[in-house]
């Protein structure tokens, strides 16, 4: 039996079978963040992940700390929430449950997502420790070692958790009904892929494609569109295109051996293999394997930080180049506004044009094998109006004209956001809400 024959069924199971549900551990002091924890648990479940938290614990003979640390180890992601309470300490310990859980997640190299109550947010004084020394020390340590998101309300916290899981696993915040397609007209991206094929830029494995734009532009949906339509149309693929999302921690982008192990594990291959063997095994599958790498690009001091993109480009430049194209890494570079107060002041100094230029420069080291697509931008009102004119949409709405509602929706968004058009994910949420409540359309007619 060939390597391709032995591993293809396993890869097919990963690509076509049920997706592994990421397990997310929720860690915080309990008394002051009870409502916040419940909302976060709901947000995690709505994102398609499994929430693990102490509220679900039943009777157990083990000590609480042992159970908590074991659960941290069994999870894929650690979500830490810190307000102004340090939390209770287990018997014989000088550190709180939350602090010990955070350290265990770091020791086990879990994906760590941290959320701090904003310094200026209103908060009941009964939920503030009399001495702030310990909680301040914890917050300072987390802010030093990680990018921390800040929240001023429970709803803002839940939205931040959804965004973070979305960036990590590429899941939509809101399920999109079959009637609501990927409405954005991405013709400039389609034309760039077609041009790359014509110029023979995608002839060998691996060839990289870089998708970039603001985090709310539904990168995962465009990658799905590439998988289902563009590759088959332009590259002439006859078999299925398998996909695997490879999530890397911030410290792993400069570790080639770790990246190789992550790719091999995602494709159900031997994680101890080297690049040459992994490349040959993926090439012998006989169908294209698309590896999606979500990457955050933040503006610091007004400059886009594209080092992680450059590190991935450098990593794949070391792979053997084989014909025909069988391995297609897709770097999904998502712009993220700085979480710091000073960073937000400088955000205007890094407009989208500077992000696009920085992405181009980061990919230049692998000339001829990297295709940088045009930036994913906001959806224009006219694109949604064209979608709304489709017969199946009108039939679903009982013949009601949805155009007035769409125009009002765009006018309100553009007035408040001061930007033209609407981010794809916000649009999907708004249209889904309206489609599910047809009475709103009918009342506007």
In short:
With 445 residues, the chain is α/β, with parallel strands linked by helices. Helices cover 46% and strands 14% of the residues. It has three domains: 23-169, Toll/interleukin-1 receptor homology (TIR) domain (Rossmann fold); 176-372, Rossmann fold (3-Layer(aba) Sandwich); 381-444, no CATH class.
Overview features:
445 residues; Rossmann fold; six-stranded mixed β-sheet; 18 helices; 11 strands
Helix-strand blueprint:
Blueprint lengths: L2 H14 L6 E6 L5 H13 L3 E3 L11 H11 L2 E6 L14 H11 L3 E7 L15 H13 L2 E4 L2 H16 L17 H12 L9 E7 L4 H17 L6 E4 L10 H11 L8 H9 L5 E12 L2 E2 L2 H11 L9 E10 L4 H5 L6 H12 L6 E3 L8 H8 L2 H6 L6 H15 L6 H13 L1 H7 L1
Parallel strand pairs: 1-2, 1-3, 3-4, 4-5, 6-10, 6-11, 7-8, 8-10
Antiparallel strand pairs: 8-9
Helix pairs in contact: 2-6, 3-4, 11-13, 14-16
CATH topology assignment of the largest domain: Rossmann fold
Mean pLDDT: 79
Structural class category: alpha/beta
Order of helices and strands: HEHEHEHEHEHHEHEHHEEHEHHEHHHHH
**What number of structural domains do the residues give?**
3
Q: Note poorly predicted spans.
A: 1-19, 172-176, 339-350, 439-445
The helix content, as a percent range, equals: 40-55%
CATH architecture of the largest domain: 3-Layer(aba) Sandwich
Query: Roughly how many Å is the radius of gyration?
Result: 23 Å
Strand content: 5-15%
Q: Can you tell me the CATH class of the largest domain?
A: Alpha Beta
| Biggest beta sheet summary | 6 strands, mixed
Structure summary, number of beta strands: 11
Tell me the overall shape. Answer: globular
Tally of alpha and pi helices: 18
| End-to-end C-alpha gap | 64 Å
């Amino acid at each position: 039996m060939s390597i391709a024959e032995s591993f293809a069924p396993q890869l097919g199971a990963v690509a076509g079978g049920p997706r592994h549900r990421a397990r997310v551990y929720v860690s915080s002091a309990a008394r002051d963040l009870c409502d916040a924890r419940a909302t976060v648990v709901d947000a995690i479940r709505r994102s398609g992940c499994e929430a693990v938290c102490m509220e679900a614990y039943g009777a157990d003979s083990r000590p609480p700390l042992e159970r908590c640390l074991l659960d941290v180890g069994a999870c894929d992601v650690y979500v830490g929430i810190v307000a102004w309470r340090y939390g209770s300490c287990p018997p014989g310990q000088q550190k709180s449950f939350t602090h010990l859980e955070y350290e265990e997640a770091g020791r086990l190299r879990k994906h760590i997502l941290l959320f701090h109550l904003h310094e200026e947010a209103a908060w009941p004084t009964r939920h503030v420790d009399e001495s702030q020394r310990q909680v301040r020390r914890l917050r300072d340590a987390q802010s030093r070692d990680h990018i921390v998101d800040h929240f001023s309300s429970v709803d803002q916290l839940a939205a931040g958790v959804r965004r973070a899981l979305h960036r990590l696993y590429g899941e939509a915040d809101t399920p999109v009904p079959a009637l609501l397609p990927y409405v954005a007209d991405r013709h400039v991206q389609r034309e760039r892929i077609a041009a790359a094929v014509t110029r023979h830029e995608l002839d060998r494995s691996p060839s990289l494609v870089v998708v970039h734009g603001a985090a709310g532009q539904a990168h995962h949906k465009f990658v799905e569109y590439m998988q289902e339509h563009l590759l088959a149309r332009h590259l002439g693929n006859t078999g299925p295109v398998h996909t695997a999302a490879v999530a890397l921690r911030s410290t792993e982008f400069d570790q080639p051996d770790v990246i190789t192990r992550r790719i091999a594990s995602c494709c159900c291959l031997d994680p101890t293999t080297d690049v040459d063997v992994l490349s040959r095994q993926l090439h012998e599958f006989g169908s294209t394997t698309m590896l999606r790498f979500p990457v955050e690009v933040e503006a610091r001091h007004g400059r886009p930080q594209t080092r992680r993109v450059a590190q991935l480009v450098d990593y794949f430049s070391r792979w053997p180049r084989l014909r025909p194209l069988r391995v297609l890494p897709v770097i999904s570079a998502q712009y993220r506004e700085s979480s710091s107060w000073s960073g937000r002041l400088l955000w205007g100094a890094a407009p989208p044009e500077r992000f696009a230029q920085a992405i181009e420069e980061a990919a230049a080291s692998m000339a001829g094998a990297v295709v940088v697509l045009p930036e994913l931008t906001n959806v224009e009102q006219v694109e949604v109006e064209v979608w709304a004119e489709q017969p199946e949409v009108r039939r679903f709405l009982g013949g009601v004209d949805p155009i007035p509602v769409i125009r009002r929706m765009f006018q309100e968004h553009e007035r408040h956001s001061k930007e033209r058009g609407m981010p794809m994910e916000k649009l999907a949420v708004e249209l889904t809400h309206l489609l599910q409540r047809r009475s709103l359309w009918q009342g506007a007619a």
